[in-house]
Design a protein that fits this description.
- Helices cover about 40% and strands about 15% of the residues.
- It is α/β, with parallel strands linked by helices and about 260 residues long.
- It has a seven-stranded parallel β-sheet, sandwiched between helices.
- The mean pLDDT is about 95.
Length: about 260
């Protein structure tokens, strides 16, 4: 299997859970990326301690403050990343930051729906827009035709909870606002794949599995998949993707999930 080979990657929500797992796994690669941009809301806060420790040991890890629900914060982050990259582009954008409010359907509110949708769906939309010039630059600078994650790609962390065809986990967690936001993210991923294909950018929606993170455990049940297994599986999937896969909805083992 071809190893995922990227010069630069950006991961949102990188201070914990899957985001932190991605940063750790990129650092362990035989050829780690030259730049790993790890973003989180509060880089100097207690919740980013583990990420700070990694950055202090690895000069290729650059921590950037980013609030994905804030357009000004996204623009500022894109400008900073552009400065670090100089004339080169960004190979891989992983939209991992997300939120869930564990509530029953009858308890959902306008505020919860709006906040969840803004973070989980609008955030990745704005990230794609802001980082498009850098992704285009990476695609133009990569040899060969076709699409791949080593060239230029947007990876949207979705969930089987956003599958309309599957009612996975309904009895355990209704989380309607989360499910709706991820269903919308799946459509966004498809739209991005259609719009950005001409620029040489692959776009994909990925379900990481039900993972042992703060968010995954928020409904009071222990999920079956570890962060390590999930991230390892997803990186294996990403390394194997090509033009035929852009716009797809896959899980961490490479299986197609029904829309």
């Amino acid at each position: 299997m071809a190893e995922l080979c990227v010069c630069s990657v950006l991961v949102t929500g990188a201070n914990r859970g899957l985001g932190l797992g991605f940063v750790q796994h990129f650092l362990r690669m035989p050829n780690p990326p030259q730049w790993i941009f790890a973003t989180c809301r509060d880089p100097k806060g207690q919740r980013a301690q583990e990420l700070q420790n990694l950055a202090s040991k690895h000069p290729n890890v650059v921590i950037i403050a980013l609030e994905v629900a804030n357009p000004a914060s996204i623009k500022a982050a894109a400008a900073k990343v552009g400065e670090h990259l100089g004339g080169s582009g960004l190979n891989l954008l992983i939209n991992n930051a997300g939120m869930v409010k564990p509530k029953m359907l009858e308890a959902e509110t306008l505020e919860d729906m709006t906040e969840t949708y803004t973070t989980n769906t609008v955030g990745p939309l704005l990230m794609g827009q802001a980082f498009l010039p850098l992704l285009k630059k990476a695609a133009q600078g990569s040899p060969g035709s076709g699409l791949s994650c080593s060239k230029a790609a947007i990876v949207n962390m979705s969930s089987i909870g956003g599958s309309i065809a599957s009612s996975f986990g309904w009895e355990l967690m209704q989380i309607t606002s989360y499910r709706c936001s991820k269903a919308a993210l799946n459509m966004l991923s498809r739209c991005q794949s259609l719009a950005y294909k001409e620029h040489g950018i692959l776009c994909i929606a990925l379900h990481p599995g039900w993972v042992q993170t703060d968010m995954g455990s928020s409904a009071g049940h222990t999920p079956p998949v570890t962060v390590d297994d999930s991230v390892q599986g997803m990186l294996k999937v990403l390394s194997s993707l090509s033009e035929k896969d852009t716009g797809a909805f896959l899980d961490w083992e490479g299986n197609v999930i029904p829309w």
